[in-house]
Amino acid sequence: MILFINFFTTLLVSVNIIDVFGNNVFTRPLEPVDNRFNRYVSEKAYEDYQILSMKLSNKKQLDRALALESTLNVSIDFWSVDKNADHYTVKGFIKKKDLKTIETFLKKNRMEYVVSEHNLDELIRHENEKSSNYQFNQVTGFDYSRYHNYFEIVDEMKSLVKSFSTIASIINLGKTYENRDMLAVKIAVKQSPNRKTFFFMCGLHAREWVTTATCIYMIKEMLNGYKKDANIAAMLNKMDWVILPVANVDGYVYSWKDASTRLWRKTRKPTNYQCTGADPNRNFDFQWGRVGTSNDPCSDIYPGSKPWSEKCVFNIAQYLRNNRNTLSGFIDIHAYSQLWMTPWGYTTELPKDYKEQMRVASAAAKALYNKHGTVFKVGPSSVIIYPTSGASDDWAYGALGLKYSYGLELRDKGQYGFILPASQIIPTAEETLESFKVMASEIVL
Question: Which of 310, 409, 431, 434 is labelled catalytic?
């Protein structure tokens, strides 16, 4: 997951939006962000890109491959890294103009690779056609089997909180760089000053839409299930929960702008160069700017000019620091690769709480598997994927001391990747919720 070049296209649109607190449909002019755009943009937004798949025989080759961007001064967006018994499998997105340079390097270093075409434009077009036809139905309500833009998600959050006002509330973590609200839902079924709170978030990387869809689904199920599902009741009775469905609001809004921005990953704060944004999951102040980052502001793993340079990251950290004495755990949900990751990311050295972290994570992954048969690999992120620094889960564990600090990578294994079909939203969210139920029961307060 390294560099992805975006194309700057500006479209101004307006859409019909339902006011969930009233009965009328009204038209709200939007920023250049909504999903009703596929008719206006090129159907070949990614025709200048190809898929690069590599089979690497050892860690040394992996390190060289992941450094290709800076070594060769080319554009590569590494989507996934899988560690197998005797090799690593790496998949990335490259520009056709860089192919010859990359191939020369790979051949010289005896790295196995295959370059193939993709159908991303077709997948995105199909995704957008479905979203474009979406209209809020006052009878059936918010459709959890579809992807939704930021405004629809916020409206649904407010609607849920209004319906369950005795146990749910909206928390505003602050304003983003582009002056949008970072809204979370707090679920507290008991009122006590010493109650523990578990915090989890989705959408820190903008293009990982299934995570945001999963978070909003889990909020709905946790609220609806409190008096119906004994396991949900148990997890809510045990501790409070704070859920942030869209952690990188500006980036998420931008990813809905048009087809060419669908794979946007970073924040939207301009740098001093021609490129925009930083990787929010490299911007936390723990081992910042070391392994798994790039000094190139155009890179998708650019950690920012300094720790906390990204407003969304600062707001998240400030909320967690202010509540550190009551926090019981932290999870940052990403996609894709099907991983339940424990600390550390910055080193392969095992932390002191490794056994306990693995015990709980393994139980959760088993529960996830039992729901739909989806297999998750469990272990330190530096071991089961690759080393990174300045990541949220490392910071939550290393700086705040949260023993139960994890990073998740949801479906799939790469068939669709970031363009996961909407038909997989519900099963993805269902299995994730099952894993959280078991995790909550296993956590020792």
Answer: 409
Alpha helices (H) along 82-140: 99-108, 120-132
Burial of 121 (0-12, 13-18, 19+ CB in 10 A): middle
Q: What is the pLDDT of residues 83-107, one digit of tens each?
A: 888 899 999 889 999 999 999 999 9
Tokens of 436: 């959280």
Q: Mean pLDDT over residues 221-247, rounded?
A: 98
Per DSSP bridges, beta strands 339-342 and 377-380 are: parallel
Q: Checking phi first, is residue 401 left (phi over 0); if not, alpha (psi -120 to 50) or beta?
A: left
Annotation marks residue 127 as catalytic: no
Reading the block at residue 94, the tokens are 């490259």
Give exposure, 71-99, as e/b (b: 16+ Cβ within 10 Å): eeebbbbbbbbbbeeebbbbbbbbbeebe
The per-residue pLDDT for 1 is: 36
The CA distance from 347 to 388, in Å, is 8
Which residue spans within 196-326 are E strands per DSSP?
197-202, 240-244
Measured in residues, the chain has a length of 445
Kindly state the DSSP code that residue 270 receives in the 8-state scheme: B
| Helices within 298-353 (DSSP H only) | 311-322
Residue whose entry in the numeric block shows the structure tokens 């990747």? 417
Average pLDDT over residues 222-228: 98
d(C-alpha 288, C-alpha 301), whole Å:
12
Q: What SS3 state is found at 15?
A: strand
- Give the pLDDT mean for 324-334: 98
Rounded to whole angstroms, the Cα distance separating 445 from 442 reads: 9
pLDDT computed for residue 225 by the predictor: 98
* Half-sphere exposure (Cβ direction) of 17: Cα atoms closer than 13 Å: 21
Residue 253: CA atoms inside 13 Å, Cβ hemisphere, count?
A: 21
Query: Helix (H, G, I), strand (E, B), or coil: what is residue 419?
Result: helix
Pairing state between β 168-175 and 25-29: unpaired
Burial degree of 392 (CB within 10 A; 0-12, 13-18, 19+): buried
Record the pTM: 0.87
Which token pair is 351? 């932390």
- The amino acid at residue 312 is C
- Diameter of the chain measured on Cα atoms: 66
